């Protein structure tokens, strides 16, 4: 009987001290590329934005394949907020038939958030030359997808 109690006690202590906790934030950017579909670059510590961005990729995949100008958003996601950010910045564009997503943390300096995400996006977009037309469909689909997930989103 004493052996059983010891095993149970040790098992409980093991679970208390070594159980998995919250997902640790990544310290490196997350880059995901699905050839012919999309390219996603998430700044460090924004790995929890991936499910929302992948849902956007799925919804935007049926859009016309013409090139689009970049559309910028401020996104308030509860999952990302758990890691200390009230919101993050998201840029979406289509180049050469491929969707491109870039997510960045807001500037800690409190400067212009559009400029923060524009600089981050342009650094990524150097690999994807081209210009596009204004794409209001991207904003409409992003706002609808965010509403379905209970995520706040605002076009910048």
Descriptive notes:
With 156 residues, this protein is an alpha+beta fold. The chain has one domain. The protein is 38% helix and 24% strand. The chain contains five helices and six strands; from the N terminus they run αββαβαββααβ. It has helices spanning 2-18, 50-60, 78-81, 113-125, 136-149; strands at residues 30-34, 38-42, 68-76, 88-95, 98-104, 152-155.
**Strand arrangement, largest sheet?**
1-2-5-4-3-6
What number of domains?
1
Strand fraction: 15-25%
Total of DSSP H or I helical runs spanning 4+ residues: 5
Unreliable stretches, pLDDT < 50, 5 or more residues?
Answer: none
Q: What is the average per-residue confidence, as pLDDT, rounded to a whole number?
A: 77
The span between the termini is 66 Å
Order of helices and strands: HEEHEHEEHHE
Helicity level: 25-40%
Give a quick set of tags describing it.
six-stranded mixed beta sheet; 156 residues; 5 helices; alpha+beta; 38% helix
Question: What's the short version?
Answer:
By secondary structure, this protein is an alpha+beta fold.
